[in-house]
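Troubleshooting log. The previous run stalled partway through. Resubmitting the same two chains, unchanged.
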Amino acid sequence: MIDFESDLSARLGPLADAVDDQSWAEVVARARAAKRHRRRLPIAISAVLATAVVIASPATGLRGKIVRLFDQGQPAPQRVVTSFEQWNDPQLHAGVQAHRAIKVLDARVAPDTTRTLWVAPRKGGGFCTNLGACYEPGFRYDRLSVEVSLRGVAPDGEILTGPVLLSGETTNERADSLLLRFQDGERQSIPLVWVGKPVDTAFFLYGVPKQHWQAGHLPTTLTMLSEEGAALDTREITGITTKGSSRP
Amino acid sequence: MDGAARELEALYETRYVSFRNALATVAGSRESARDAVQEAFARALAAPARERGEAHLAAYVWKIAFRVALEQRRTGGSPPARLDVDPQLLEPERDPELAAALRALPPRRRLIVFLRYFGDFSYAEIAAACDVSEGTVAAALAQAHAQLRAVLEPEGALR
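Second attempt completed without errors. Output:
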């Protein structure tokens, strides 16, 4: 993979703009102006990947899409509302309607740990999740988006405490459920939770069980299935480190 | 100028171009990216030292620049129907195959690729910039590499 990284770097390199138009004097001038009109600095940008660590695993092997009607969703408690309100920091202007946040799903990430996914609409369309992402009005992604998050990894790559989490979303209305395959031949069905308008997106959270953190038992692919069982998209699951694997 | 300010200036001198290039994938143009990077360093310079006291100064400045770029997009009337963060190559026509392969990555993973290859961010800096663990960064990059490799190296050679 190192060779590929070098090749990729070599291929991306020429696409980078080499022009050096820096000006520290301009920075200093701007800073002086900023001091005259100082505002509170932005909170940490959890934004893009942020709390993507909060993923989880349904305890059951349910098959089939779960539909949440937004207006009938379980309202978020104040601590979650407060968290969403951070998106309305003057630096971001996300326009999150934090008070309208609802629960999408609870998922188990460890035998005694459950995490919850929340979603809140934005003024003018779009929505934000407590995983740290905001989406514009009319957001569409009909393939399956999958993120892998690791915690508690030893220097040699062994995952000590986890959790190992898979999360993602799709706007493919034919999507009904997910099928996760492992190296040892085991399979696990993962439910999709579809949240209706104004969100109109299906989500999942899954905590990979500890027995599947070892070489020979790792997740391999995640397939998005229609109600009829047709494969709509398949994503390879990579990046889960194991003992002895080289960690950058 | 205090020590922290000198450290910031040193960061600026060595990393300005890479910051601008990485941010251009989010901001949509070199000019917007330049403005955001300039503004970010200015805000960092204007901030009290205690607010700059993060372990990764590069990540701290990047967070500000990123927010400024998002602000610019919002006030500039960005097109709808796109992820809030949808980074992409500025000139995809220069390498359409690579551009298409990158476009197939989920936006968040694509951003990490750009931080790594355009921004010259270390894994630790990316982790700090995105508020995730280094393990998550490693996983995201490994996934991105595998996905890109499958498209770009179907028979073994990247080109």
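Takeaways: Residues 3-152 of chain B form a domain with the Butyryl-CoA Dehydrogenase, subunit A; domain 3 fold (CATH 1.20.140). The two ends of chain B are 48 Å apart (CA to CA).
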